[in-house]
Amino acid sequence: MKLIKKTTGLLRDTSGETMVEVLVAFTLLSIMLLVFSQGLASATASEVSAKKNRDNADNTMIDLQKKLVSDTPTASGGNITVDQKATFTVGTGTVKTYEYEVDGNTYVVFVPGT
Fold first, then answer.
1. What gap in Å lies between CA 94 and CA 76, rounded to an integer?
2. pLDDT, tens only, 20-50
3. What is the model's pTM?
4. Are 32 and 26 within 8 A, CB to CB?
5. Among 66, 63, 67, residue whose Cα is nearest residue 55
6. How far is CA 66 from CA 47, 57, 61, 63, 83, in A?
7. Biggest alpha carbon distance in the chain?
């Protein structure tokens, strides 16, 4: 008998969410998803830009290395200007520094001397 009274009481219970509460919750969820998706899009764009910058820097260094391999440190090429800046002693050996100017950019290279 108690079980029937409990079941009847549960069936008559009208507590729960109203349609307005459901709509407010859905609206808040939609706004949060919109903010999250915008943040994700911004992070993706930043990653693409960073990868592009890294690739450009890598390609520039590869081009510089190719140009430096084709010229000796004391030579002056068509678009490469080489200037030996200094020779100094490190421990028991020497190090020579060369300044390379390639396409308007200056690079300093340290070469072990004899």
1. 23
2. 999 999 999 999 999 999 999 999 999 999 9
3. 0.44
4. no
5. 63
6. 28, 14, 9, 5, 18
7. 106
